[in-house]
């Protein structure tokens, strides 16, 4: 999910709501210790959290391997993770080996609300409520598209440009996800059809019947499928869009310290 500067205050209110406690710590802040801007941002954020009486733990990290090692040691009760100066360019759910099912909570009073939980479908709301959220404040680019468009857990603070500039990439990403889902459904249908035919062949001793099944299979495999060819062409087009995005090279955009100042 992408957050524009106009939405930072709302996100901070959500962070306060899920992290405010009088006893235990429910927030971890990971800071890139080799990034001066990240260190400055962490100082500003620390002052802001102390002012609001929010208990937190600040952990410096040196590289992504250090981040992964420290993340995997945190307690399950931690509801808010903030990454400063790191996290924007990697698929966080995959890299940190996060199983989203471990953080789903159907209790509407305890779990943070995900972007899609505003749906009118109450069952869907409960399924999308998570016990943990990850917030990324990092000016390194390009954004990893899985963080922006493929995760309910990760929220990315942006300068507002990506929401406009990445419309094409978002469409390509969503299309590829939909195509993958459809392909899995088709594979399941094919497997079920083959199992049914094999069961019929086993229960019927007629050789002509078995031969007709084999002939039918050969025809199905040899006959061209225009739908699949068209789908391959669409996949290549969308993959090219994603590849060109990542091949633009890396850059450093907005200061993390400046982003922290928006909710102040």
TrEMBL record:
- Where is it found, in Gene Ontology cellular component terms? DNA replication preinitiation complex
Which InterPro entries does its entry note? CDC45 (IPR003874)
UniProt-recorded Gene Ontology molecular function terms? chromatin binding; DNA replication origin binding; single-stranded DNA binding
Q: Where is the composition biased (Acidic residues)?
A: 182-210
Biological process terms from the Gene Ontology for this record are: DNA replication initiation; double-strand break repair via break-induced replication; mitotic DNA replication preinitiation complex assembly
Q: Where is this region: Disordered?
A: 182-236
Q: Which UniProt keywords apply?
A: Cell cycle, DNA replication, Nucleus
Its annotated compartments are: Nucleus
Under the heading Pfam families, the entry gives:
CDC45
Q: What does the sequence similarity comment in the record state about its family? A: Belongs to the CDC45 family.
Q: What is this protein called?
A: Unnamed protein product
Question: What's the source species for this entry?
Answer: Ambrosiozyma monospora (Yeast)
């Amino acid at each position: 999910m992408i957050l524009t500067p106009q939405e930072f205050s709302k996100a901070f209110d959500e962070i306060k709501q899920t992290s405010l406690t009088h006893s235990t710590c429910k927030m971890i802040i990971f800071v890139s210790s080799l990034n001066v801007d990240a260190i400055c941002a962490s100082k500003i954020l620390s002052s802001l959290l102390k002012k609001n009486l929010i208990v937190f733990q600040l952990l410096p990290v040196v590289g992504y391997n250090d981040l992964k090692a420290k993340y995997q040691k945190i307690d399950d009760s931690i509801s808010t993770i903030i990454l400063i100066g790191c996290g924007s360019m990697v698929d966080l759910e995959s890299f940190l080996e996060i199983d989203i099912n471990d953080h789903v909570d159907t209790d509407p009073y305890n779990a943070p609300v995900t972007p899609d939980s505003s749906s009118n479908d109450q069952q869907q709301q409960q399924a999308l409520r998570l016990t943990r959220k990850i917030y990324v404040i990092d000016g390194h680019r390009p954004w990893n598209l899985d963080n922006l468009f493929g995760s309910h857990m990760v929220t990315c603070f942006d300068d507002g440009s990506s929401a406009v500039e990445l419309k094409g990439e978002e469409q390509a990403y969503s299309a590829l996800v939909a195509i993958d889902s459809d392909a899995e459904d088709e594979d399941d249908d094919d497997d079920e059809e083959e199992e049914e035919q094999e069961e019929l062949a086993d229960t019927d001793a007629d050789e002509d019947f078995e031969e007709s099944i084999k002939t039918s299979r050969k025809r199905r495999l040899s006959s061209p499928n225009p739908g699949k060819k068209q789908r391959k062409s669409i996949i290549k087009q969308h993959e090219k869009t994603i590849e060109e995005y990542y091949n633009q090279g890396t850059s450093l955009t907005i200061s993390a310290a400046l982003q922290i100042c928006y909710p102040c």
